């Protein structure tokens, strides 16, 4: 179960089914048995109540940054004024207002991923699903995006379920970590992350952080 407003990460070995689980929740893949419910409703396919952010940026290269963020809003047929207001808001949130009329090829990798996150959030989903969203970034940009997204989540408190191979990232960002095992894919453990809500890169140097990281790594080895 995933509680409302909770930030949870899933870690596990390659091939254990992490991405498949996320795709089932997103409604992109049907479950072989059982079902998924979001806010009491059975998931039968993709829906506005679930936003998705992938490892690859998945931006439309022929659309401007503003139009990429507003793509889902057009599908919803929101009034033009409301749509433009929401696009402007999320451009400001991600710090890219001056790039509104730029195209994806003109942005860095980190900036593109900010746009992908803004596009997902602009639809105001109940749950944000993230499949290794920072996995393709260099180390410095990755840490910058981690801090940015943690700050964004602390403002919105949207429910987040994130897949990652990076144990340190999972401990830094989340309130709890599900550890998956393989053959068959299953949830082996859930480790609660008891760290201060406000975290900085220095948090990664604390004894509490190192101990939590050790616990997760140990659970992965079982």
Keywords:
222 residues, alpha/beta, Rossmann fold, 2 domains, 6-stranded mixed sheet, two-stranded antiparallel sheet, globular
Proportion of residues in extended strands: 15-25%
Can you count the beta strands?
Answer: 8
Subunit arrangement of the protein? single chain
Helicity, in percent? 25-40%
What are the secondary-structure elements, in order, as H or E?
EHEEEHHHHEHEHEEH
Which structural class matches the secondary elements?
alpha/beta
Radius of gyration in whole Å, from Cα? 18 Å
Low-confidence segments: none
CATH level-four homologous superfamily name of the largest domain: P-loop containing nucleotide triphosphate hydrolases
Tell me the number of structural domains: 2
Helix-strand layout with pairing:
Blueprint: E1 7-11, H1 18-26, E2 37-38, E3 41-42, E4 50-53, H2 65-69, H3 71-76, H4 80-93, H5 109-122, E5 127-131, H6 139-156, E6 159-163, H7 167-173, E7 176-181, E8 186-192, H8 207-221
Parallel strand pairs: 1-6, 1-7, 4-5, 5-6
Antiparallel strand pairs: 2-3, 7-8
Helix pairs in contact: 4-5, 5-6, 7-8
If you had to describe this structure to a student in words, what would you say it looks like?
α6 links the parallel β5 (127-131) and β6 (159-163). The chain folds into two domains: 1-49 and 127-222, P-loop containing nucleotide triphosphate hydrolases (Rossmann fold); 59-124, no CATH class. It is built from eight helices and eight strands, in the order βαβββααααβαβαββα. It is globular. The longest helix has 18 residues, at 139-156. It is an alpha/beta fold and 222 residues long. The strands form two sheets. The chain has a six-stranded mixed sheet, sandwiched between helices. The chain has a two-stranded antiparallel ribbon with strand order 2-3. α4 (80-93) packs across α5, α5 packs parallel to α6 (139-156) and α7 (167-173) packs across α8.
